[in-house]
Please model this.
Amino acid sequence: MTEPSTPAGRPAGGERRRDGIDPRARAFLAWLDLIGWPRLAERSPAQARRDLRILAAATSRLEPVGTVEDRTIAGPGGPLRLRIYTPRRGRGPRPVLVWFHGGGFVVGDLFSADATCRALANRSGAVVVSVDYRLAPEHPPPAAVEDCVAATGWVAAHAGDIGADPARLAVGGDSAGGALAALVTLAAREAGPRIVFQLLVYPATDLALTHPSVAEYAGPGSFLDGDTLAWFAGHYLGRRDPADPALSPFYATDLAGLPPALVITAECDPVRDDGEAYAARLKAAGGMAAVVRYPRQLHGFFAMDLVFPAARRAQRRAGDALADAFGEPPGARPSLWPAPESLLRIGGAMAGMAATLVSHHTRRLARAASALQPLGADRTADGTRGNQ
Model:
């Protein structure tokens, strides 16, 4: 299913033209080019994490919710942070969604997922628990999966403490988080807890990158280009087999007995086919899986509701699907007014963006000057070349 119909007649293969994407997405990419925003492949993991926080703050809107609470639980590798969102409407015990943020298993955190979790809580009427799982390369696989499994188990065991109903437990995530959600359902099928629904937003289910959309949409100029995909793989996979089912749920031998799924994809996304192929495998195994492809959208659009109207539509569809799975009426419409902290967040993003650009371009100029120094080292005091 597409929303609405997908335009036909696009060129296939190689570098994708930007005229095939949503005009807002094209303007967004042009703006990043204009200001010289650093490419991910040029950044260290620490720098990339700061960059994502800035972009998340600049492109997403914080909705007011009932409550936001931070908790720390005992995780497999030490303290594990959770952020718990209670929606504005309804009474407990509410259904609960455990959410795993995106970021290629290397970047992302509770801050970058904040706006998405608020929107999903209000749209679905569920408590949303965001998980700050460990990131690579500092914590290689299976650290992230272990943390997500542990967090889901904690939520099921302590649902009453957070006003939630453990019988109505769902998991979800975007990009890398979507892959983690799929892996959690596979683990829960064998050892519990019972999960009633999975929300997979452009999930990266095939880290071997074997599907056609990679060649179609990872060309130069893409938001998620080949260099960026290689950067993520280098930091997360190292020498590990990307087709290992413990890392790539697409390669799991048996997908029977898994909860119903909504898979949301973006047309102009290298990992579009990952999600759609995974949904096809779920259905082939006897499961229920609905796919909604958003035409002309980029990877990452779901979280950028200040930039893309399609993000708001996708969040609404996701919330409605969750509410339906939980046996709840549709949740609240978006608030007309952002949360008070939203304006501070955007202001901080603008300041952070300016600081990042100054730092990045200063480093580039310093490298250029350093490269030019040998060219002038053999000149004499009067400016003529020596040793002639």
Observations:
- The first strand starts at residue 67 and ends at 75.
- The domain at 18-345 is CATH 3.40.50.1820 (Rossmann fold).
- The chain has a mean pLDDT of 88.
